[in-house]
From TrEMBL:
Native species: Callosobruchus maculatus (Southern cowpea weevil)
Cofactor(s) the protein needs: FAD
Membrane topology: Peripheral membrane protein
Function: FAD-dependent monooxygenase required for two non-consecutive steps during ubiquinone biosynthesis. Required for the C5-ring hydroxylation during ubiquinone biosynthesis by catalyzing the hydroxylation of 4-hydroxy-3-(all-trans-polyprenyl)benzoic acid to 3,4-dihydroxy-5-(all-trans-polyprenyl)benzoic acid. Also acts downstream of coq4, for the C1-hydroxylation during ubiquinone biosynthesis by catalyzing the hydroxylation of 2-methoxy-6-(all-trans-polyprenyl)phenol to 2-methoxy-6-(all-trans-polyprenyl)benzene-1,4-diol.
Statement: the UniProt record of this protein carries the keyword Disulfide bond: no
GO CC term (a single one): extrinsic component of mitochondrial inner membrane
Protein name: Ubiquinone biosynthesis monooxygenase COQ6, mitochondrial
């Protein structure tokens, strides 16, 4: 009787498809070749990139995300969190087919970037609004993540676990050890290579015990969705360096732009609590206000303009100003802190850091997420090379190539951004004169401007 019951149960189970998810306290360990911790924009894009790499097609990949699966719901209302993607990031998303989803929804292009100093009025522009080439692409964070997530569903060697939080990471001590990850529900997983994409408070980085250089800036950012007072083509990104920090408008459509305004924590708190009318007035004042200028600086910058003209070097004659702001999208104001962070080592045995887990920068140059996507491009190539050469994916000599290549780009970029912050967060007259002349000279020398654009596009 017992045997008959068991047989009938097995027959019944055989007919019913069962999907097994290991979220229990089972002591059984589950092994993957690669586990990615963190499913934000960078983590999800990394999983998609590695999953679509034909050289890694026989590798089992797991993406762990602590939060719920997010769904992008299209509305006329834009999100207040957007990113500016450089051409290299755009190409990666296009290669992943994620750009198709973005293109079919919405995005904005930047064909020209104009930056000017409020204290001296020195100005520099990049690109041409009538050019074929785009400088960057403005995309909502949630839309980018949704586009990549759609592609994740088509990758056969990839699994994604949402609502899954890691409790502990045990990293290899000996040659043949594997990374062991214990989740909050008690289940354990092992892998040959753990990729930390879990943000600037990275638990993976802490488990590595690598030195992390970090500091907070005496600034916060405030974001909002702005409505312009007039309809324009809106392909220019504007940034004005104020004594308290830069204010920037990023295009969204012909009638709206996204605000990113850096200011002191005290001022940001006031701006957040202002009425809509007061806030709009504050934005317009920040963009159009004329600051007191030193006669010496005015004389020196004009003399330098004449010097550049004498040698037939281009001097800014086409400066433009954005339309005034008429209103802000209700509920779109938000504030967040700024900080700097850099891991002195991106790798150790069985582990590599990617994106904000490895580096964090001030957003004044719009390079934060692009540095993370640059990491993805490099790591994908390195792991493909390792497999192609018959090595293991956690081979330290190959991971070292990733670390070396990315630090060669990331460190100078981060120091340049930090230097710009410190240079423009200073109203000492000699410093203002130095930065104004530097801005004029850079604007006049097209090869230098081209180098800046090329570097920012990697």
């Amino acid at each position: 009787m017992y045997k008959r019951s068991l047989s009938s149960l097995l027959v019944t189970l055989h007919k019913v498809p069962i999907t097994v998810r290991y979220y229990s306290n089972s002591a059984k360990k589950h092994h993957y070749d690669i586990i990615i911790s963190g499913g934000g924009m960078v983590g999800a894009s990394l999983a998609c990139t590695l999953g679509k790499n034909t050289k890694l097609s026989n590798k089992k990949i797991l993406l762990l995300e602590a939060g719920k699966e997010k769904q992008y719901n299209y509305t006329d209302k834009y999100s207040n969190r957007v990113v500016s993607l450089n051409p290299a990031t755009h190409k990666l998303l296009n290669d992943l087919n994620a750009w198709t989803h973005i293109k079919n929804t919405r995005f904005a292009t930047v064909k020209r970037l104009q930056v000017w100093d409020a204290v001296s009025d020195a100005c520099i522009t990049f690109g041409d609004e009538n050019a074929i080439e785009d400088i960057s692409y403005i995309v909502e964070n949630d839309l980018l993540l949704d586009a990549v997530s759609k592609e994740l569903k088509h990758i056969s060697n990839l699994e994604v676990f949402y609502n899954t939080k890691a409790k502990n990471y045990s990293l290899p001590e000996y040659k043949d050890d594997m990374v062991k990850i214990t989740l909050e529900d008690g289940s354990t997983y092992t892998c040959d290579l753990l990729l930390g994409c879990d943000g600037f408070n990275s638990q993976v980085r802490k488990a590595m015990q690598t030195q992390y250089v970090t500091w907070n800036y005496d600034q916060m950012g405030i974001v909002a969705t702005l409505e312009l007072s007039e309809e324009i083509e809106n392909v220019i990104a504007w940034q004005r360096f104020l004594p308290t920090g830069p204010i920037a408008f990023l295009p969204l459509n012909r009638k709206q732009s996204s605000l990113v305004w850096s200011n002191t924590p005290e001022e940001v708190k006031k701006l957040v609590n202002m009425s809509e009318t007061e806030f709009v007035d504050a934005i317009n004042n920040a963009v159009y206000r004329t600051y007191q200028r030193s006669d010496i600086i005015e004389t020196a910058t004009k003399a330098f303009d004449n010097f550049l003209r004498f040698f037939n070097w281009p001097v800014d004659m086409s400066r433009r100003y954005p339309p005034k702001i008429s209103r802000i999208e209700e509920g779109s104001r938000a504030a967040f802190p700024f900080g700097f962070g850099h891991a002195t080592s991106y790798i150790c045995k069985g582990v590599a850091l990617v994106g904000d887990a490895a580096h964090r920068v001030h957003p004044l140059a719009g390079q934060g997420v692009n540095l993370g996507f640059g990491d993805i491009i490099c790591l994908n190539e390195v792991l493909g090379n390792a497999v192609n050469c018959g090595s293991s994916i956690n081979d330290l000599s190959f991971l070292k190539d990733y670390e070396t290549e990315r630090q060669k780009h990331n460190v100078p970029t981060m120091l340049a951004i930090d230097g710009l912050y410190r240079l423009y967060n200073n109203d000492f007259a000699p410093i203002v004169l130095l930065r104004s002349l530097g801005l004029q000279a850079t604007h006049a020398m097209h090869p230098v401007k081209d180098k800046v654009i090329d570097w920012a596009s990697i």
